[in-house]
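Lecture 7 notes. Example A: sequence first, then its structure tokens.
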Amino acid sequence: MSLRLFSTVFILFLLSSAMEVFAQRPTRIPPVTQVGREIQPDQRQTGNEGTTRQEGEDQQGGRRKLIDDSTQMVFGPKTTLYFFERDIKRNRLKKHELDTLLNNFHYYEPVAKSGWKYQDLGNIGTAAQSVFYQAPVMIGTTSGFHAYDLYHQSPDSIKYYDTKSPFTNMELFFGGGNRNMMDLEFARNVTPKWNVGFTLNTIRARKVLNPNRRDDNQTVKNAYVFQTSYKSDNDKYLLLANFSRTRHVVAEQGGIIPPSVDSTSLYFTYEDAKVWLRDASAIDLRQDYHLYHEYELLKGWQVYHVFDKRKQDVTFKSALSSPSSNFFDLYNPERFNRLDSTINYNHFSEWRNEMGFKGDIGPLYYNAFAKFRTGRMKGNFQVDPYGFDELSIGGALRGEINENWRFEAEGEYLIPSAFRINGKFISPFLEATYTKALYKPTAMQMLYRGNHHRWSNRFSNIGLDQVQGVIKADFKRWSIRPNLTINRVSNYVFFDENQQAAQSSGDAFMLIPGVKTSFNVGGKLFWETEAYYTLITGDGADNFRIPEIFANSRIYFDSPMFNENLFIQIGIDVRYRSEYFADAYSPAMQQFYLQDLQQQRFGVAGYPVFDFFLNARINRTRILLRYNHVNDNLLSVPGYFVTPDYTGLKGLLDVGISWPLFD
């Protein structure tokens, strides 16, 4: 870790410690009520049992005591709870205990946290897109610049806290090759019903390919969030608000120069690789203001309002002199605006207001709303901005017998030509969902003016029918969950082999069966697997590039040691994608696009990647060790690719620590 990053971490630690000292004035401790808690099937009881014993928290009359036998207040993960706005809005408030489990702790970077279901450029913070087709949540206009969505914390994913003591959590991850991340989180109750907090997230990831110096970073991210939650004394009024800002800077390299272009360029040389671009950069700046508040007019009947103000500034800069000009001459030969350099700038902004009412009648929940969005996209080479005004109405319905048996339905109609309908059935043995949608292409796909690309389109809305189902067969020592996804996508908009926005004239049908399994041998040895097979047919099938086989598997030992003073997981991960013609990446547009199947330029070969990991917890502190790509240079090929001309990681050791403080 560089001296600059170390100094930053040390200063933040001192600040958080000072805030905690300041926060130690006595506060009134409200009664602790029972709260709901979601436990995933792969979570182990051993982790939380150890925490319970260490915190000295016992049960009395169905409630946890905050005061032990010596009248000393005991704070810990079970007295610091968090919740999400979506549960408040759906009248299904669940306050979650802090995660102290070891399962998946070694998956610290965003792509790994997704279960490796994203295709990136081989380093933390680089452009990424989902491997599988994703059903849209927003049916209205979006910017279209989504390459860095994975690293941005959207307002609806922010945690709100209820803390009985000041809470600070510090997570530091030191990746091999100076790929570093830091997460700092603080929250405290000002009063029993008013909580404030903030988070700080940073990435400093050195270039994996051809770095010039130790701190020659490929990714520099700085992001922070301020959040607050407030409830009135009579419990009728509730307010949730947050402000977030993310500045994500990436040094674009264009990938490794193919040996077919330069015979002296070789793959899998990493630090010695020859790359196309040395002076190109992309910046994605996002800023969100978000407010949700509700008021209970009558018992079980509330009115609510949601306000959002968002902006996204996207910039790409590169000189067009040698050697960078060679890349653009080959892949983006047009020069529409500037001959000596490319500076593409796009600004997207939107305002949203949603008003509605909701309530409960016995086991039935209902909701109705009206929503208005207005915004625009403006580029530095556009004469007129691409503006939009969208009015939609919608609602939701839920019937719930108990936590295990329920149905949900929701819908939104964007006047006059877009909609989304979603239904879900949940039981102890089966979950099934159906989604039907007609959603808008992005602003960037409709109108774009850049130095190398330009278009003005009038695309039709994109249609989707999706059916998903999973059978749940969970037993004491093992579980198996077969699942199936069926998609029909019509009028799909994508970026073709010429890096132009295009719309499919035919439908694509996707059949994706899968399975998740977990086996437990003797309560200490575990084997978990997730696998999918994808079959795509129809006239629009060539517009989707998805590996036929996608699989992750893990075998590990999980057990407490030394009288449960140490909890440990040690094991091996393996992931595999079969060979496919993965989408290539265009830095100037910040978009993934189709390779030309006729030329068959670059097939991303099927390659199993093995990682060794060790997760441990001592008291409340968790640590991880992970050695990436254990089989580096051990197979018939020396490595693997994640995107055409972008190699995956070589063998590197990562270290991480999570350190929560509760008083």
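Example B, a different protein, same format:
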Amino acid sequence: MRTRRSWPVRLIIMVMMVLALATTSFAVLADDPTEISGTKMIECPDCGLTGGCSVCLGTDAECEACGGTFVCPTCGGEGYIQSPSSSYNTALSLLPPVIAIALALITKEVYSSLFIGILVGGLLYSNFSFEGTLNHVFSGGIVASLSDSYNVGILIFLVILGTMVCLMNKAGGSAAFGRWAKKNIKSRVGAQLASILLGCLIFIDDYFNCLTVGSVMRPITDKHNVSRAKLAYIIDATAAPVCIIAPISSWAAAVSGFAEDGQGLNLFIRAIPYNFYALLTIVMMLGLVLMKVDFGPMAKFEKNAVENGDLFSGSNPYAMMDEEIDDTKGTVMDLVLPIVVLVVCCVIGMIYSGGFFSGENFVDAFSNSDASIGLMLGSAFGLLFALIYYFVRRSMTFKEMMGCIPEGFKAMVPAILILTFAWTLKSMTDSLGAKYFVRDFVRSAQGLQMLLPVIVFVVGCLLAFATGTSWGTFGILIPIVQNVFSMDNPLAIICISACMAGAVCGDHCSPISDTTIMASAGAQCDHVNHVSTQLPYAISCAVIAGISYVVAGALAYFGLPGIIALPVGIVLMLGFLFFVKNARRSA
């Protein structure tokens, strides 16, 4: 086991060290000194590039700070100063994320790994000064991240989302939908398609997906002899892979938090067509159901379910559990209406933040929207509607509704911790000039650019697989990837999407992923059985997605549309399923 686990660690560290130890020789002549290869210059913290005195603002001839010169005494009017860190724009600037990655892979624990990476960043920035390290880690890192208005808006959205999930579950909407579906779904294929559809509709959060789809669809899939392992796969495959391509979701908010200038949502939307793993996972699910084909261990589980009525192919780990209470007061609208209103309110909030009501057209307003403001305002109105709706419906008492607020907050604590540490690690790497070091490397290694998407995808897969978290992978990789190119470069969007796809793929495969564990619990399936039956499907999809990223990288590098790789991947996926089906027939 140790030998098997060590190779992902070695591969990732090797890739990162190649980046870190590469020498650069590309120079850019520009007025901006930060554009020069090997630059040590940073923006002046006192005047913010203006070059003017920040005390008198250039208006006091007797100013004690500038002595009447009206120029910034810190930078002498240049707007730039030399970084105080001796590690700035060197190979050491990548050490914090490298350490965070290595520790996450070894310990399989993301919180301490991210914090140690942050601590190393503080040490390097302060040149190993004890006082300077503490100030930079806490004041310049954690406190600065949590006091940033954009970040706080994202955190508020997560808390409200957790509250709404709690409200919807207590209102009995899930149970009502299950009763309706049981009466209207008549076939085995229909039961699986309904599970996929419900999983895709509950796109606002993967936790909500896992907690809802399993309890709603278990009675329906059991009635049509769908194995619990197959249901667990459908739940897992419609959780993170769907959330990562849904602009209105907690995942979109998390990814948006790592982008600069508040353009995270625009970046997220542009990356959706290149998220090959997520899109191909949906294609694979539909193909498996409609073509009635299964392979690997899943084929045995499905055969036992169809022929023998054995849904577990072994013992049922949940056999001693009490039956769930059927809340007869709940209706289908208790689940559907709050979600629809939440989505509508969030869309309105985002176009509002993008200037739609000030004259911008819908597309431009949505693209230029501020995810923090839009999702925060939209979710607030969605929560208000849900509270009023459930109160009028008498679904629960006012005290019970208020009790959902702290419950929702507690449910989102892990996400808040990961985001806080990830934002802080990003600020550490920024303060060390990591983006300039990686930029110079890429400029000097032009031939490597076309392979960067698949490299990022593989690294993201391995990291998320070992740590069991996608968001921690986002926090480590996206800030680095984002600084390799300017965001108007098509190859940049493909690389960002490859990071997200790799993180979701690794999370999907990982036995220690919280989403994987909750999918097993939601389907009431043995966890080991779920992992073993899902892994061949996820790996097959990952291989085809990797090929698609090679194609997309090559196309974008030579100036061709990289989106051509998506239909290529879909054809490869369908061809693979046809091959498997024919192979099983002839066997």
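Note on Example B: Strands lie at 41-43, 80-82. Confidence is low (pLDDT under 50) at residues 1-9, 11-30, 321-326.
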